[in-house]
Amino acid sequence: MLEAIRKHAQGWLAKVILGLIAITFALFGVDSYMSGDRSGGVVAEVGDAGISREELTREIQAQSDRMRQALGAAFDPAMVNVPEFRKQVLDSLIERKALLQEAQKYRILTPDSYIASVLGQIPAFQQDGAFSQQRYEAVLRQNGRTAVQFEDELRQSFMLEAISSSVSLAAFPSNTSLGQIARLVAQKREVSWTDLPASSVAAQIKLTPADVERYYTDNKADFTEAEEIRAEFVMLDMATVAAGITVSDKAIADYYAANAAQFGQAEMRSASHILIAADQSADAATREKAKAKAAQLYQVLQKSPERFAELARSQSQDPGSAAQDGRLGSFGRGMMVKPFEDAVFSMRRNEIRGPVESDFGFHIIRLDRVEPAQTKSLAEVRGVIVEELRKQQAQGVFADLADNFSNLVYENAASLQPAAVAAKLTVRQSGWFSAGNAPPPFNHASLSAALFSQQSIKSGENTEAIEIQPGMLVAARVAEHRPARLRPLADVSAVIETRLRAEQTARLLAQKGQALVRSYAQGDELDAKWSAFKVVERQPSSELDADAIKAVFRLDANKLPAYTGFARPDGTYRIVRVSRVLEVSSVDPMLQASLQSGLTQAQQRADMQAMIALITAGQGVKIKSNAIEDR
Question: Checking CA distances to 561, which of 88, 300, 383, 542 falls within 20 to 30 Å?
Answer without folding.
Answer: 542
